[in-house]
Every structure is written in C-alpha cells, then in structure tokens.
Amino acid sequence: VQLVESGGGLVQPGGSLRLSCAASGFTFSTYDMNWYRQVPGKERDLVARISRYGGATNYADSVKGRFIISRDNAENTVYLQMNSLKPEDTAVYYCNAAGLYWGQGTQVTVSS
C-alpha cells in the first residue's frame, strides 16, 4: 500500500495550492479518503473527507468555503484544492485511506 502526496510548497496569504495523493496497492474506489493536517506539537486534525464514489464530502469548519476535496477513481488519486490560504493553514498535510493507510505528508507554508 502506498499513498504519495504532492503539491505542497510556499504560498502567499490569499493564494491557492492543489494537493494530490496518488494511491496504489489497494482498491482505491472502495475506500473513503481523507486529508488531515498537523502542526508541530499538536494533534493531527481532519481537514476534509470524501466518500468512495465522491457523492459526499465533509469539511472542518476552519476550511469550509475555501477548500475542495475531490477524487478520480480511474486515476486512483484524491485532491485537495486549497483557496484563500491563510497563515494558519500552514501545516504538514497527510492523505489517509479510511483511517487505515497514511501518506508521508507534504508541507504547506502560507507566508508573505
């Protein structure tokens, strides 16, 4: 099983980033997928969730209206479009498959 995140980086406040998570080694289309984030010294928090076929999504209150989670089951990939980024969005972002499998994380830094 492998989850590989990409797309992180440094962005100015108000900017956008799109994270990708490429999955392999399991039947991607049968798993709900999640994005979490973590800052040093704090717990890993759920940011967004998408159901196995993409029909249902859920977001943390802090990112509602700014972030969009989506998936492409043909490409075994889940995405997180992050808009109107704020400094408090700075964290390591992790892809997760139904609470079982984790990626290595990708750093997102929002700073001027």
Mean pLDDT: 97
Number of helices: 0
Structural class: mainly beta
Largest sheet, strands/sense/barrel: 7 strands, mixed
What string gives the helices and strands in order? Answer: EEEEEEEEEEE
Tell me the number of strands. Answer: 11
Distance between the termini: 37 Å
Key structural traits:
about 110 residues; four-stranded antiparallel β-sheet; seven-stranded mixed β-sheet; mainly beta; about 50% strand; single chain
Structure, explained:
- With 112 residues, the chain is an all-beta fold.
- It is globular.
- The strands form two sheets. Strands 2, 4, 5, 6, 9, 10 and 11 form a seven-stranded mixed β-sheet that branches. Strands 1-3-8-7 form a four-stranded antiparallel β-sheet, with no helix packed on it.
- Helix content is 0%, strand content 51%.
Précis, in short:
The chain is mainly β and 112 residues long. It is 0% helix and 51% strand. The mean pLDDT is 97.
Blueprint (SSEs and pairs):
Blueprint: E1 2-6, E2 9-11, E3 17-24, E4 33-38, E5 45-50, E6 57-59, E7 67-72, E8 77-82, E9 91-97, E10 101-102, E11 106-110
Parallel strand pairs: 2-11
Antiparallel strand pairs: 1-3, 3-8, 4-5, 4-9, 5-6, 7-8, 9-10, 9-11
